[in-house]
Every structure is written in structure tokens, then in C-alpha cells.
Amino acid sequence: MRLSDEEKAMRDGRDGAAVARAMDLLIRYGEALGAEDFVETRNVCGTVTATTPFMRDFAVRQGGLDAVFSEFNLDSAEIVTPPRVKVFASHLQLGFDPHHPAEMGVSEEIVQFYRRSETMAARMGVQMMNTCTPYQLGNVPVFGEHCAWMESSAVVYINSVLGARTNAEGRESTSAAMLTGRIPNWGYHHDGPRRATQGVELATPVETVEDWGLLGYWLGDWVQDRVPAVRGLTRRPDLPRLKHFGAAASSSGGIEMYHLVGVTPEAPTWEAAFGGRAPQEVRRYGAAERAATLERLNAMASDRKVDYVMLGCPHYTIEQIGEAAALLEGRHVHADCALWLWTPRAIKDLSVRNGSAAVIEAAGGRIFTDSCSAMSRAVPAGTKVVACDSAKQAHYLPAILGLQAWFGTTSQCIDAACTGTWRA
Ligand code: F3S
Predict the structure, then answer these.
(1) What pLDDT is recorded for position 63?
(2) Residue 403 beta carbon below 6 angstroms from any ligand 1 atom
């Protein structure tokens, strides 16, 4: 790879051993990808903390959190001490909610281990947002900004909705990017790969959050990791709809970039989305495709008795928490069912202040933060059947935990929580 003088100096140890190991990792990574050089980034979103028993045991054997960071974040056998990050960096979701270890099936010892690594990360200057939706908490990259982000639903959101530029990075590359302000210059940092190749003509209204989840799930299944453009919208989507759409598209497929004509910044027109080239293929999405997708998402479920209702994938917005609270007003969660909502800590705080949390808790629901059921593999004890309003969670929970999953609207999910039955 071609290195600037600054990059050579970091590689050669000017800024200390950890930065040198980070540059070494990024050079190896860039060469493997075929990148010719680096882009500068000032916005990194990744995972720094240690949360697993395996990491705890590694720390005990090898010499503490510096050893864990060196091995798991920098792929370095040499133990280095992580310095302060060079650029703005925020932390993604965790493998559990540290405020509720019993429900997460996590020992107090692991929580304490995590807390020590959280202190280390905060000392490094990493903002502990602990969410898959950092764009809800003020990490909002601007149009054209080169970023280094992990988490498929966040990657597709900032590429497609904000017009920022990132590939789907990993724990190691984002950690190295935090220490250097560099990431290999390839893929979605370039104009060409951002252009659409596949087209979709909408032939049915796509309006509700459920509609957007279904469209995303159908689209990801078809295009996999190619870039689609969609036209024919009847209504402009908002943040919750776009959040659900991208998360669904990146779970049934590997979509990291899409264009909604007239909505997303690089698609003012159909022609612009394709960069002036003809689409390789155009498909129609109508009522039949919607119905088939709904049926497919619910294919793993047969028992109507629901044990657990999971809301908040991707992490709920304050507006969605308010909607759930309104649906719960005057009702109570069924004795044989549990209702758990997932959201960032900062948004939970807001829901406490605006009264939504009290309504949800009075009805028997609970609000968790920092993680989700798929990430933490945590569901209420004895759960066999789950209901959710997220196509992504309905995709993963049967695969990860062997649960039956019903997918539907938020209202249908709240009804299931209050009756213990999937009546949709
Ligand atoms: Fe977020 Fe978990 Fe869904 S991390 S996108 S809530 S699978």
C-alpha cells in the first residue's frame, strides 16, 4: 500500500507501540483487500470492551486488559497499552445489558470484568453509547464523510440515509482506525461500488414500519450484497421506518448500501442511482411479494401461545417507546408472557423523564439497554415462542436460540403481550 509520511511515522512507532501495531494491522488488512492506500476518517464506531468469559480467562492468563486489547482488538501478540483515540469514536451494543445480569444469564464476575474494560474504553476517549443506533445519540456523520463503522444495520443506515461512506468493518479494523484515523480505501469509500445495479418498482404502498421491514427482508433476500435502487414510494419514510428497512435488508441479505429514489442523498433520480448505467435487472414488489414475505417470516411459528414479546430491534427510538406506552395504557402484560423493550441508555433516560417508562413498567413491561435478545442470547426463562415487530430479530431468534418467532406490527405484538396469544 502507498503510505503517506504521516502513516509511515505511525507505522514506525512515532506515536507509540499501540499505534504502530494498529498501522501494521491496517496495512495487512488493506493489502488483503487490494486497497492501494488509506482514507482519513474522523468517525469510528466499533467494539472495544471485553464481555466474555473467554476474554476474562485470557486476561487472567496473559496479563490483564492490555493483553485482551492487544490480542482481540489489534491482533497483536505483543502486549501494548491502548492510548487515547485519535478521532471521534463511539461504542456499539454489548453482548448483554450490564444493569440486569440475572436476566442476561451473566455472572456478577463477568459484569465486573466488563465494567473494568468500560473504564478503560472511556479513558481512551471512546463514547460509551452502547447501541446499534449511534445516529440516534448524536453520532450523525455528514454527507460524503469517510467513516469506519461496524454493525450491519448502522452501516447500511449511514451509507444510504446519510450518504456517509463506510464498509462493514470489524472489531479489529475499527479499533485500529480509532488509534490512527485511517481505514483502507476500498469498497463503499469509492463512487463506483455505491451505484445501484438492481432495480425495484414498487407496486404496493409501503407505509408502516411493518411494510418497510417486509420490503427490506424481501429485497435483501433477492439482491444479497449488491446495491439496489427502489422507486415508486407513496410516502416518504422516517427514521424508524428506514432503520427497520435497512436492518431487515442486511439480515436476509448483505445489503450495505441502497437507494430510495427521491429520498436517499445519492438518488435524486433513478438514473442518478445507477450512475447513468442500465440496471442489470428490475423486479416488481407488489402485494403478492409482500404477502409471501410475511408468510416466510412467520413460517417458523405454529404455537399461538406467546411466551415473550421483544421490541426494539434496531434499538427503539423515543417515539417508538411512546407508541408502545400508548398501546399499553390501561392494559397489563399477561401473567404467562413477558414484554422486554430494548433501547440505548440515553433514550431510556428520556423515556423515564417523559413518563413512557412508567406506563410500560406499570403494565408489566421492562426496558433494557445496551444489547438485545439476539446479541445477548437472553430471553425470559422458559421462552419457546417469541413475537416481535422486527424482521431482523424474527430472522435471527429462530436460528440462534431455536425459538418460534411471530413477526407483525407493534400493535399486534403488544396485543400478544397482553393476551399471551398471537391473534394476528
Ligand atoms: Fe440492534 Fe440487536 Fe437488532 S444489536 S439491530 S437490536 S439484532
Answers:
(1) 84
(2) no
Find the helix or strand (DSSP H, E) in which 407 lies: strand 404-407
Distance (Å) from CA 93 to ligand 1 centroid:
8
Pocket flag, ligand 1, residue 391 (CB < 6 Å): no
Distance 374 CA to ligand 1 centre (A): 7
Q: Say whether pLDDT at 300 is over 90.
A: no
Q: Which amino acid is at 55?
A: M
CB of 93 within 6 A of ligand 1: the answer is: yes
Mutate to test the pocket of ligand 1, among 129, 150, 158, 372 (most ligand atoms within 8 A of CB): 372
Residue 378 has pLDDT above 90, yes or no: yes
Q: DSSP readout, 123-173?
A: HHT-B---SS-GGGTT--PPTT-B-EE--HHHHHHIIIII--B--B--HHH
In the block, cell 421492562 appears at 366
Q: What is the pTM of this model?
A: 0.97
Q: What is the pLDDT of residue 186?
A: 98
Pocket test for ligand 1, best of 315, 345, 376, 395 (most atoms within 8 A of CB): 315
Distance, in Å, from the CA atom of 377 to the CA atom of 91, rounded to the nearest integer, reads: 20
pLDDT digits (tens, 9 = 90+) for 384-410: 999 999 999 999 999 999 999 999 999
**CB-ligand 1 contact for 313 (6 Å cutoff):** yes
Distances (CA, A) of 70 to 45, 57, 180, 210, 278: 18, 15, 15, 42, 47
pLDDT per residue over 310-331, tens digit each? 999 999 999 999 999 999 999 9
What is the CB neighbour count within 10 angstroms for residue 162?
18
Confidence band, pLDDT 50/70/90 cuts, at residue 58: very high
- With a 6 A CB cut-off, is 388 part of the ligand 1 pocket? no
Angstrom distance (rounded) from CA 267 to CA 160: 9
Q: How far is the CA of 310 from the centre of ligand 1 (A)?
A: 11
Cell numbers standing for residue 192: 463506483
Judge if the beta carbon of residue 132 lies within 6 A of ligand 1: yes
When the pLDDT of each residue in the chain is averaged and rounded to a whole number, the result is: 97
| Distance of alpha carbon 290 from alpha carbon 211, whole angstroms | 8
Task: Assign 99 a pLDDT band (cuts: 50, 70, 90).
Answer: very high
CA angle 359, 360, 363 (to 5 degrees): 85
Query: What local confidence, expressed as pLDDT, does residue 372 receive?
Result: 97
- 206: CB partners within 8 A, 6+ apart: 212, 215, 233, 234, 235, 237, 285
